Amino acid sequence: MQGFVFPGIDRPATGMKSVDREYPAHRSVSGARQSKCVMSPSNAGMVAETIERRNKHWFVRTKVASDLIIQVGDSSFHLHKLPMVMRSGHLNRLVFQRSDAERETSLKIHIDNLPGGTKVFELVVKFCYGWKVDLTAANIAQLYCAAHFLEMSDDFEQGNLISKTEAFLSFLIFSSWKDTFRILKSCESISSWANEFKITKQSAEAIAWKACTNVKAFGSSENDNAQCFNVLPNNAENLKFEDEADIWWFEDVSFLRIDHFIEVIQALKCKGMRADLVGSCIAHWTAKWLARITSGLERMTPKHMTHQLLRVTAECLIKVLPTEENSVTCNFILHLLKLGFMTKINSELLSMLERRIAFMLDQCRAPDLLVKNYGGKDSVHDVGLIVRVVVSYVSIVLSSPTPKMFAVGRLIDGYLTLVAKDENLTVNSFQSLVEALPKDARYCDDSLYRAIDMYLKAHPNLTEEERMSLCGSLEYHRLSQEAREHVMKNDRLPLKITTRFILLEQVNMTRSMTAIGSNYQRTKTQAIVGVNKGLGKGWMNAKKEINLMTKEVETMRVQLNDLQMCKLKLQNRLKRCII
Predict the structure, then answer these.
(1) Could you tell me if 145 and 197 are in contact, meaning their C-beta atoms sit under 8 angstroms apart?
(2) Does some domain include residue 438?
(3) Would you call 30 exposed, middle or buried from its count of C-beta atoms within 10 A (0-12, 13-18, 19+)?
(4) Do both 40 and 177 map to the same domain?
(5) What is the DSSP letter of 408?
(6) d(C-alpha 463, C-alpha 484), whole Å
(7) Within 10 A of 11 (CB to CB), how many other CB atoms are there?
(8) What is the per-residue pLDDT across 505-562, written as a single tens digit (0 to 9) for each?
(9) Is the dihedral of CA 402, 408, 412, 414 positive or negative?
């Protein structure tokens, strides 16, 4: 490990302490060794002999008796005025605003809301008394904010705590990938201070810059775009990439808290990261976060706080989604929409998501619409969610059918076949989705009939009324001949539907035979005219042909009578069933 000379850090004498440099590594943050620095003040007004701790009390031993007690939280520090007020503007005011009589005796000062609390103030005390302080990625941000809180600037003492912590903080943020994440983690307890002093923003920008240094992440040319990864559209939790080098940073970013993650995403956008990479990063983070929620890793949070956290998180994720086409998958947006309904997020955000999915429907596949329910008695997949999206789509496309609408019709029929076998799927839910699209959104109802038949097969205990209501959307003229024949033989369908199709088939056959009879009659007339005009040479052949056609017409009339009798029998049977 090479040494790195960093000016202004650790000057116990005239030399400068070297700081270990650690380069960014494309691997997980957890378990890696932290960068470390030893810091001491350039000039100590009073050096402590020992610093002792007894329960929640700290005692600094010097040749002079203690004349200052500082209460931080439920802990007290028995200190001296001189080393503390000469470095801290905040403590200087608190001490010297007291009367002369009070200053001559031992003072007790309460400090509330100090960033980092007792542990950080202990480091401040060591620094003020000339002791060496170990700086790490885990404490540097809190110590830097505490230094600002206590106003420990160079105006009071050259090489004061603000300047030294700022130097090491900047060094870590811009030199070490893993330490930047540790810094963000340490900022979770001091969010307002970290935001005020731009620690969060600078850390996010550093992460974005390092992620974007991978050339393949920019993709401004066709060659770069060819290296783009593919996200499986049917499941937002499973990400597959052509080039893992593009997404080496996904895993580390997925452990950030939502506010820090949003900062990173905004920084990535500003740096020009490809929209599809940004969208997939958001999907990856969401999948990891939901896995932690559902697996119970965050059970320490009260239930009402968990619900509020879910709602705020969902709203933040929706607002930060990239708007570019194909930057996020339809399946992921559907999962966000479901999360939004569960947590009752802003209605405008819900409408925005519904419209965005609606515009993507014509490019989706049926598996893309599968979003699971998690209730024990609920259907496996959330069909109601798809109904809302389809209704939104129809409200947008109110004009005459377009090729895109026919594509959506095929999509919904395909989705219906996927969910039809679910035993917990109610008739109302299934029928609502069938009726959500207008009838003219389909070229043909064969796929719809197939889905309905699958549903009836999986739900044999439906009442006759439920089956009749479900099959009411089937129309004879919108089915192929093969499908019609299947309907007339299908005992799962209501008898009334089967009878109706048989009667319509008879009517269709009657019309066909009537047309054929007319053609035969015209042929007969044409033959007689030909005989009369001829010289008589072929009149015997024409007569035979006419007799043959007459017999065929008679045969067809007999078949038609048989069909009429069959019709009467079916009608009588239907009446008995109804009675």
Answers:
(1) yes
(2) no
(3) exposed
(4) yes
(5) H
(6) 23
(7) 17
(8) 777 776 666 655 555 455 544 544 444 554 444 445 555 655 665 566 567 667 667 7
(9) positive
Residue 452 lies in a domain: no
**Alpha carbons 237 and 294: distance in angstroms, whole number:** 14
Using DSSP's 3-state secondary structure scheme, residue 57 falls into strand
Do 156 and 301 lie in a common domain?
A: no
Do 95 and 107 form a contact (C-beta atoms < 8 A)? yes
| Nearest CA among 379, 330, 385 for reference residue 356 | 330
Same-domain pairing of 82 and 172: yes
Are residues 208 and 69 located together in one domain of the fold?
no
Q: Please give the DSSP secondary-structure letter assigned to residue 33.
A: P
Number of structural domains in the chain: 2
Q: Are residues 289 and 141 in the same domain?
A: no
From 277, 293, 328, the end of a domain falls on 328
Q: Give CA separation, 491 vs 119, 217, 453, 460, 494, in Å.
A: 78, 58, 10, 11, 8
d(CA 170, CA 357): 42
Question: Closest by alpha carbon to 153, among 107, 99, 91?
Answer: 91
Cβ contact 89:153 at 8 Å:
yes
DSSP 497-531: HHHHHHHHHHHHHHHHHHHHHHHHHHHHHHHHHHH
User: Domain residues for 272?
Assistant: 198-216+249-328
Mean pLDDT for the stretch of residues 121-127 = 94
Please indicate, yes or no, whether residues 192 and 320 belong to a single structural domain of this protein: no
Q: Which residues, at least 6 apart from 333, have a Cβ–Cβ distance to it below 8 Å?
A: 321, 353, 356, 357, 360
Q: Do 187 and 253 lie in a common domain?
A: no
Residue 410 confidence (pLDDT) above 90: yes
CATH of residue 117's domain is 3.30.710.10
67 three-state secondary structure: coil
**CB of 546 closer than 8 Å to CB of 528:** yes
Answer with the one of 328, 348, 365 that is the final residue of a domain.
Answer: 328
CA distance linking residue 305 with residue 432, whole number of Å: 35
Q: Which amino acid is at 320?
A: V
Burial class (CB in 10 A: 0-12, 13-18, 19+), 143: buried
Within this chain, do residues 205 and 187 fall inside the same structural domain, yes or no? no
Task: Report yes or no: 3 and 18 within 8 Å, Cβ to Cβ.
Answer: yes
**Max avg pLDDT among 22-31, 291-300, 313-322, 558-567:** 313-322
Q: Is residue 505 part of a domain?
A: no
CB 316 within 8 A of CB 273: no
At residue 231, φ and ψ (nearest 5 deg) are -105, 125
Contact 510, 520 (CB under 8 A): no
* Residue with the two structure tokens 């042929």: 523
